[in-house]
Amino acid sequence: MTLDLAGQRVLVTGGTGFLGSAVCRRLTERGARDIVAPRSRDYDLTRANDARRLFDDVRPDLVIHLAARVGGIGANLDHPAEIYLTNLLMGTFVIEESRRHDVAKTVLVGTICSYPKFTPVPFKEENLWDGYPEETNAPYGVAKKALLVHAQANRAQYGQNCVYLLPANLYGPGDKFNESVSHVIPALVKKFVNAKQSGATHVDVWGTGTATREFLYVDDAAEGIVAAAERYEGAEPVNLGTSEEVSIKNLADLIATLTGFAGDLRWDHSRPDGQSRRHVDTTRARTLFDFEASTPLDEGLRRTIDYYLAHTDEAETATF
Hints:
Elements: E1 9-13, H1 18-29, E2 34-36, H2 48-58, E3 62-65, H3 73-78, H4 80-100, E4 105-109, H5 138-158, E5 162-167, E6 169-171, H6 184-198, E7 202-206, E8 212-213, E9 215-217, H7 218-231, E10 238-240, E11 246-247, H8 248-259, E12 264-268, H9 283-289, H10 297-310, H11 312-315
Parallel strand pairs: 1-2, 1-3, 3-4, 4-5, 5-10, 6-9, 7-12
Antiparallel strand pairs: 8-11
Helix pairs in contact: 1-7, 2-4, 4-5, 6-8, 6-10, 8-10
């Protein structure tokens, strides 16, 4: 059966952020008329009393938990304790308040960083517990993976309906371009645009370029999350991705071309690559709730670059 979103009061934590804004737009397109996207200044979800007050105020029928403290490799290295504790507390309190308020369904969004460092490629959901995550991402990945344990334990003991999704690396308009928090795509877009505008002859890029990633356009991720909210009821985690793997070197070459930068790329081997490969199996999402990503990487990158050029000051304001 498909959940009628028009009849639901939907609470979207993190609903004003990068992914959350896209999810709220997609919910509206699907007919949802009662969407609540609280601000962190009004409800600090790392505090049990604030989480309880939010749920007491909203009384949601459906919860989509997107609020997160997240950044690229640099932020992960600089703030591991904050990243671990903030994400663990927010998710824990959201799951418990959803249970306490008898919320009909809670959608939890995890991270591909939870997979073990040496997961066989493509990553299958059943491999999630086969080892420890890559070290630079481990605090974030472990905190998010703990929420899957919590959700499954609550389902077993209380019958709570929580579903858990594992999106590939996200990108798109609205992403964070501040170098203190940015992931690889916005970081590269900013570097190449600035180099082109300043007439620089080279750009320094972290790592060796040999690591691979799978990138999911933000609107496609939003579609997968809403599709799961409508049609998925299972306890098992589900990957969201494109089934396309690209090396960081090829990604950098593509972004350089799209931004018009014609200089050299200098790879800084002293900087970490992170996990050597990331590429997910998307069979479950396609089979269980008919989700397939539709945005080609080059088209998504063009839209991301256009956004950055049109909103440079705004795009660079986000910090950790």
